[in-house]
Specification:
The chain is mostly helical. It is built from 25 helices and four strands. It has helices at residues 6-19, 25-39, 86-96, 102-120, 124-130, 139-152, 158-170, 177-201, 207-232, 241-252, 262-275, 280-291, 301-313, 317-327, 332-344, 348-366, 372-393, 396-405, 411-420, 424-433, 443-452, 454-471, 474-493, 497-510, 515-523; strands at 43-49, 52-58, 62-68, 76-77. A hairpin with a 3-residue loop joins strand 2 and strand 3. The radius of gyration is 33 Å and the shape is extended.
């Protein structure tokens, strides 16, 4: 049970409290009998796997149960009872005990009796809403249901939307697995919309509030991604096509989020189209919808991003690259994920079209205003794509050119390339050019350079010695002397002690007024006292 997420267990408890009515005699008996079975130690052979838990429960006869923590109503038991039975209740209590006291759950559930009585005293309008019939085959019907349930929500904060709205409504998903997954995706999308409405109602410039919204959006993105992963395991039935086509307009609403949340919302839009709607006729239809937003030759950035993504999925690379070129350096970073994807799928023919565009935009990218983290991440994607392409086409010079042009972002990759090619002079020059002291040089590369081309390393040591001498304190002189010993050893290896003496004499002359430095030279036995 160590691998079980405590928060997930507690959320499941909240969902069970909404399903089991403490005012209903059957539900009270179910909880009571489940509690007896648990306390008798009847639950055994418990296995945790993803969001499901399997176990055996010893009753009059042993039964097998599978508990779905994310969708409790999808849980199953080998006993003949319908729905959530006492055996599933016993298994749940066994799991709950790993997260909290059993008495905490039972007491909280009993306290819901008063709340349930209040719910039964609904207004006439609420009773009419309660008659709403949720359909399996209508996205529009689902959104009517989502809106109706949202109106009932007493507190509309991001926290309540995540914990009470999303997870509660997920229990109402259709029984068929593919419909359940699609329902949950749409529920995740409208939850994102409602979260951002909550954000806009409050102080939108508050950094902590923005961070909180970002965290919840990431949770929702993960929830949608999980459903897409499940759907990708099986062939999508043709019967789902009308619902998928109906989904297009709802997915496009992701492009209407506040600009500050583009980095979260736009990847979800991309993911949905790649995984669910990646068919030429739907892509062309979406492209027409997005291009309709052109006004006086321009288009809002959110629709432009969507349009570019659709062009990529349509494999219209020349047209896409043309738009990117017209857009200038601002659009270049967004292209790096696409070329990385082409490299991963080994689509060399398409990637070849991108190479000139990539190389010509590298200098501007290095000088852009992106953060260091963003720049480095983009450089990694770019070099991975160019490197894979260069390996396939045996075009090593292309990869090396990209490494040179991307400096200093590409230092690690370029250093590795030079070292593997045993180009130690160029390797040393690279480190010197970027001003890296020898302490920061990768030990393996330094050892190999010293072993194979000691002359290449001498300049690197000397540069670091000069840096230490400019600091002008006792500790820096000590470090300089330690490095001087290594320089002496390298000159001896090269059988060039005369040049060593000249170098040492030059240092003594240049820093003859620094008594502390001379004392350290004596202590290091480099000169006589």
């Amino acid at each position: 049970m160590r691998d079980l997420d405590k928060e997930r267990v507690l959320l499941t408890a909240e969902r069970l409290r909404t399903i089991l009515n403490p005012a209903d005699e059957e539900d009270r008996n179910l909880v009571k009998k489940g509690l007896i079975l648990y306390r008798q130690g009847s639950v055994y052979n418990v296995n945790v796997s993803a969001e499901r838990i399997s176990a055996k429960v010893q009753d009059v006869a042993p039964v097998s149960v599978t508990l779905d923590l994310d969708f409790v109503q999808a849980s199953s038991c080998s006993c003949p009872a319908d729905g959530f039975c006492r055996h599933l209740m016993a298994a749940f209590l066994y799991v709950y005990a790993s997260a909290d006291r059993i008495g905490t759950f039972v007491d909280a559930w009993k306290e819901d009796t008063a709340a349930q009585m209040m719910l039964n005293m609904k207004k006439a309008s609420d009773l009419l809403k309660a008659q709403f019939r949720l359909k399996d085959d209508s996205i529009e019907n689902w959104y009517q249901f989502f809106e109706m349930e949202y109106d009932k929500l007493p507190v509309k904060t991001m926290q309540s939307l995540y914990h009470q709205y999303f997870y509660k409504l997920k229990q109402r998903a259709p029984k068929k697995m593919e419909l359940k997954r699609l329902f949950t995706i749409h529920l995740g999308l409208i939850t994102i919309e409602k979260m951002l409405e909550s954000y806009k109602r409050t102080r939108a410039k508050d950094a902590s509030l923005q961070h909180m919204a970002q965290v919840y959006l990431n949770h929702m993105e993960h929830a949608i991604e999980l459903e897409l992963d499940e759907m990708s395991r099986y062939a999508t039935p043709f019967a789902l096509d009308p619902l998928l086509e109906e989904s297009m307009d709802y997915f496009r609403r992701l492009l209407d989020v506040p600009e500050v949340f583009y980095p979260s919302a736009l990847p979800i839009y991309k993911m949905l189209w790649e995984e669910l709607l990646n068919r030429p006729k739907w892509l062309e239809k979406e492209y027409e919808k997005l291009t309709s937003h052109y006004r006086d030759g321009g288009i809002e950035s959110r629709y432009l991003y969507g349009m570019l993504q659709i062009l990529f999925l349509l494999k219209r690379d020349e047209e896409l690259i043309g738009i990117l070129r017209d857009g200038g350096s601002l659009l270049f970073p967004g292209s790096l994920n696409w070329v990385h994807e082409l490299a991963q799928t080994e689509n060399w023919r398409r990637l070849e079209k991108w190479m000139p565009y990539l190389i010509e935009n590298i200098p501007g990218y290095v000088q852009s205003d992106l953060s260091k983290v963003e720049l480095r991440r983009g450089a990694e994607l770019l070099l991975a794509a160019v490197g894979s392409y260069a390996d396939e086409k045996q075009a090593d010079e292309l990869y090396e050119q990209a490494c040179r042009d991307l400096l200093p972002l590409s230092f690690n990759e370029y250093e590795h390339l030079l070292s593997m090619d045993e180009r130690y002079y160029e390797w040393a020059e690279l480190n010197m050019l970027l001003g890296y002291p020898v302490y920061e040089v990768e030990g393996y590369y330094l050892d190999e350079a010293e072993k194979n081309e000691p002359e290449a390393v001498l300049a690197l040591y000397k540069q670091t010695i000069s840096l230490e001498m400019e600091i002008r304190n006792r500790e820096s002189y000590k470090r300089a002397v330690r490095l001087l010993k290594k320089v002496k050893r390298l000159y001896k290896k090269l059988k060039n002690e005369e040049e060593w003496e000249d170098y040492l004499d030059m240092l003594q002359e240049r820093y003859k007024r620094l008594r502390a430095f001379r004392e350290e030279l004596v202590k290091g036995k480099l000169i006589d006292g």
